[in-house]
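Appendix B. Chain record.
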Amino acid sequence: MAEKNPALRTWPVRPVIAGMVVTAMCFVATVLITLNWFSSRSLLIDSAVQTSYYAAHAASEHARRLIEPASATLRTLSFDPLVTAPRQPERLARMRLLAAELIANPLVSAIYVGYADGDFLLIRPLENPQIRQQLQAPESASYLVQAVTREPQEPPAGAFYFYDANLDLVTQRHQADYQFDPRERSWYQKAQDHASTVLSDPYVFFSTRQVGISLSLLTPASDAVVGLDIALHDLGKDLADLRITPGTELALVDGKGAVIAYSDMPALTDPAQGTPVLRPVDTLPTQALSTLRHIGQDGVPVSYTSEGRAWLGVILPFDALNRTDMRMLLTVPAAELLGGLQHSRTRMILIAGGLILLCLPLGWWAGSRIGQALEHVTAQAKRMSGFDFSRPPAQPTPLREVAELNRVMNHVSDTVEAFLSISQVLGSEPQIEAMLNLVLEKLVHATRCQGGAIYLSQQDQATMTRFAVVGDLNELGPQLHYVDRPKPASLQHGKTGARVQRIEFQLQGRTGEIEGMLVLLYENDQEHASPEFHAFAAKLTGMMTVAIETRKLIESQKQLFDAVIRVLADAIDAKSPYTGGHCERVPELAIMLDAETTGPYADFSLTDEERYAFFLAAWLHDCGKITSAEHIVDKPTKLELIYNRIHEIRMRFEVLWRDADIAHLQALLHGEDAAAATAQRDQRHMQLQQDFAFVAACNIGGESLQDEAIARLQQLGATTWWRHFDDSLGLSTDELARLRQHRGPAPELPVAEPLLADKPEHRIPWGAHKPAVERGAPRNTLGFDMQLPAYRQHRGELHNLSIRRGTLTEEDRFAINEHIVHTLDMLKKLPWPRHLARVPDIAANHHERMDGAGYPRRLPGSAMQTTERIMAVADIFEALTAADRPYKPAKTLSESLRIMALMGKDGHIDTELFLYFLHSRVWQDYAAQYLLPAQIDAVDVAAIAGMLRP
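Structure tokens predicted for this chain:
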């Protein structure tokens, strides 16, 4: 609302000023303006002529500043070893001198040497973006050396050398089409006939297509000619700066009428090629200069008409470039030149006003008060122009218009300040809910309303729920029934009894869907009742819509990302249920450990974004297992492939059993002693039963296998049985290829086969799919440092049965461990946002060890952050206590914690973190949710902690 001082009476500014000073000012101003008009016109014309001479002189001085330093540079270079160097390397060795000359003479665009044998060498800076693009210069290049060398009986060889700012070679490019011969150029030929510096006429440069002049000098020590190019583009800029009025036209032309420099240099560009050309003055956009060239004389001002406009022009000689016939053309629109007379009239009016104020005390007083009030407004306007929109202290004024202007300026300041605050909130507030509340508060302030609320639509519901509110809650209920076309409704304000208006706006997103409603309560005054206010408020709803859409977009993206991760976990679960359970339980345990607020890690805390990244990493830490073969990950026995190969071994024992029966029957047929034959058969049967039971026990992998057992396996493996069928039938292409590679031609049947064997075809090589996990591997870009087994898979029966502990061979163990390689590789390929950039490392480092002996990258503890160490502890504890692993029984709480204590002592996990985990009893809460009752036993925390002492 307007801020008014009821004790101070205000007056309209127009009657106050008009009644006191206007009459006298008009009389004096009329006299002064009349006298000033006739004198000013003559002065302006004389001033224009003098300015023309100044412009020509300034342009000439600029041209001389181009020529004189360049001539000195040529004289210096004419004695340099560069001009006598016979070979390209010797010439390139002098690049630092040439680069130094270019730095010392920034107006020189190129320095070059033409040799008598046709060789050519040129260096130019690459500062012009257009030249860089034209020459396709590398990003780091600062200089270009263009060279042409000629060898007898060989075509010219052109090459471009690109150097950086330190004059280190960036790249060298062979230019087969660069067949430049300096001996054919005019600057070379003219230098041969003169002992001093030769200045060329302006022309378009061969390589850069710029308009400029060349200076060349014949060297005294050889027939080589040194030269340099000076672009005249800056001369055109000088002409533009010398304009008398905005419409002034200036051009520098040669004796043939070709434009060398023009106040509007882009007009000299060829539209087809985008490069400057020597355009005739008759083809310029305006015909005023062409007309002046044809009718004017040197140094004589001339008035003329061109294209329906009156002009004042002059032609001046331009002798800055020696031995060149050049003229400067300058012409000014008469209307612009004489337009300053209006400013002169205004000045005289102000002078008249000052005289009147000096004569009339009352006018002085009125002017002072008016000036003071207007200065206050001007100062506020200047602050706003300087991007300071704060409201200054109020200053009372008796002038009604000034007071009203002050009020409007304050409102504008408040509104702009509110807009800036909204923009700052939208760009900096990380909490979406807080952002909506702040944006609503600023919007209510910007519209000078009494209050407001935001109602968001609910899915499949016609009622909207209030999400943010500012002002009286009695008028802004918690819910709003959606109305398709909201209209203003008059409401009674409960507290003050004043009439207020209520208006509702639909918040529509980019898709046209209704995101919610904005309700504003405002005082029923003239300002808010206008259609302009309603239109203004409706346009501001876009800010609220942006905030709401941002909130929904972030939430939907997060939900989608979480759902994708859950789908991946479900896929792992479907492939291997215990692995999916592991992926679900590890995040729970890790978050439990992170939530602890006591102990040595009590000061460790994560922001919401860091906690979310930790949560994602926990869910994804074993995502690479989706690529692991189930028969290896779930391998319950040593001979397991796709199925348990113990059945093949048992069948061979059945064959030997049958052979014993056959041998018994054959003995009876041959008349041998029946009792002895039967006893021999029964003994053989018993031995086979014992041997198979031994092999089957070895296949389980429960106890550590001793050397005696391995020796017995080798002995049993040497037992033979007769194969009567071709073992190459029914094989896949790969199997058949491996069999033929290692065995050669098939043996004649029947053939004796060993009972247990490690055949060559059992060893599956890596082939073309060898993973790049070894240190120094060319494709190892993620820093893996793992020992790669000799074979991708070893199916040998003795090799697998001889595993000393567990069921996994070296090849199987690598295949399982490789899941973390795939985890890191998969996650590194995802375009993570900045706050989630560490998710791949957190997820993939849980198999690293504190002593640096882990995998896949052998990172030491110092290279792992606390989140990664927490992940390792959680992963190990869950794996030890898991009851759904087919290859091992579940361990109790005390047994699992003792194993982890030994792992901490061996440098596997962080001992401080394990002690924190142990004393925090997070494991107890986890056990209550996920462990079987039989696994939960008494735990002696002190004894387990004591295991870590030296």
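Further analysis of this model is presented in Appendix C.
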